[in-house]
Amino acid sequence: MEPVTKLAFRLSQILDRAAGWAVVSTMVLVVANVILRLFGHPLGGTYEWAGFLTALAVGLSLAYCAAQGGHIAVTLFLDGLPPKAQAVADIVTGIIVLLFMFMATWEIAAYATGMAVSGEVASTTKVPVYPFVYIIAFGFLGFCLVMAGVITESIRKVARK
Question: Residue 52: how many CB atoms within 10 A of its CB?
Answer without folding.
Answer: 23
